[in-house]
Amino acid sequence: xxxxxxxxxxxxxxxxxxxxxxxxxxxxxxxxxxxxxxxxxxxxxxxxxxxxxxxxxxxxxxxxxxxxxxxxxxxxxxxxxxxxxxxxxxxxxxxxxxxxx
Length: 101
Fold this sequence. Notes:
- The chain is mostly helical.
- It has two domains: 1-31; 43-100.
- Helices cover 78% and strands 0% of the residues.
- The protein contains three helices and no strands.
- The chain has helices at residues 9-12, 18-28, 34-97.
- α2 packs across α3 (34-97).
- The longest helix has 64 residues, at 34-97.
- The chain is rod-shaped and about 105 Å long.
- Mean pLDDT is 78; it is low at 1-8.
């Protein structure tokens, strides 16, 4: 049984609206607007590939930034440990030196 005559077209093409739905119906019925649909789909594929490339570039930039932030954090943690060690030595040294003054 033909899907179109069985009423299945509403289910299959529900997400498509307006121009796309008309072009698909014309293509299925053998009208010459099929090439318009193909061109439209090719254009959308091209746009989608561009968006994917932009997302991949953004992901790479974020990965690089995250790596730099991790390195900077590690460097700051090392400096903080050094300051705490120096502070500890200072706290120990002050009571020892106080009686001598």
